[in-house]
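Saturday, quiet lab. Running sequence design on the structure tokens for the scaffold JK sent over.
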């Protein structure tokens, strides 16, 4: 279910929300051992892998969507069944992945499986608080009287709390030792046409867009084009965003 929302949207994602997720890359790659072998799970457009290679790491990526994998020049595959042997990577990253898979705990166990003893697993997710771009979009939907279809959700027994403690909890359940759990903030700038492309096609945004009539589509676009402060920074939209970030290590022995 969750993965289906990200299928066949690679190029639109690259021009829209990929820039949002890229804001977490510096922290994800900070202070890693040089020349370490790194696997980025759910690599998307490959931005993290490219940055890791520039930093001197031996990095590869994998993504379940063939279009996304082709765009990134990565392998095709995803959680919870990665095509790698146990203990193969000194660093495993999952940037905004565990909040989008159908089985988060199984996904966490797979991250732990492919990480070497003593290795590092770093994961980010979006927290439970609606991000500012969603708040902006929700205001526009209310303004034009749009319908609100139910957002796809995981069954309660598979879901987890979208918080530092919640993410740390499923990594701990996977046998990892959590060393850091908190949040990271940054400002995301995006061109209006690029954000519009994402809002009308990707994830739950796309689900909502496809539920509207042509008339509502037109009114949404007009209201969107009229947006000003506090959402604008010159010709760009600007959003102060925050994610959950957790680091864990694989116990030795």
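Result came back. Writing it out in full:
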């Amino acid at each position: 279910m969750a993965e289906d929302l990200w299928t066949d949207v690679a190029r639109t994602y690259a021009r829209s929300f990929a820039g949002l997720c890229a804001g977490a890359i510096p922290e994800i790659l900070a202070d890693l051992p040089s020349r370490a072998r790194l696997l980025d799970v759910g690599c998307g457009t490959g931005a993290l892998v490219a940055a890791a290679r520039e930093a001197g790491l031996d990095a590869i990526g994998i993504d379940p969507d063939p279009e996304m994998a082709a765009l990134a020049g990565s392998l095709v595959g995803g959680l919870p069944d990665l095509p790698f042997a146990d203990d193969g990577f000194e660093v495993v990253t999952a940037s905004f992945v565990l909040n989008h898979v159908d089985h988060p705990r199984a996904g966490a166990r797979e991250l732990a499986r492919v990480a070497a003893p003593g290795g590092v697993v770093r994961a980010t997710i979006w927290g439970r608080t609606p991000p500012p771009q969603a708040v902006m979009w929700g205001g526009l939907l209310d303004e034009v009287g749009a319908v609100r279809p139910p957002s796809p959700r995981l069954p309660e027994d598979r879901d987890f709390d979208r918080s530092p403690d919640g993410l740390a909890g499923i990594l701990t359940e996977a046998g990892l030792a959590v060393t850091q759990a908190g949040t990271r903030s940054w400002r995301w700038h995006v061109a209006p046409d690029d954000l519009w492309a994402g809002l009308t096609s990707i994830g739950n945004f796309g689900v909502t867009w496809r539920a509207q009539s042509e008339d509502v589509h037109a009114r949404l676009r007009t209201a969107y084009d009229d947006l000003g402060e506090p959402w604008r920074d010159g010709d760009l939209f600007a959003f102060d965003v925050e994610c959950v970030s957790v680091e864990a290590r694989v116990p030795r022995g």
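Notes for JK: The radius of gyration is 18 Å. Residues 132-143 form the longest helix (12 residues). Ask whether to fix the surface positions before the next round.
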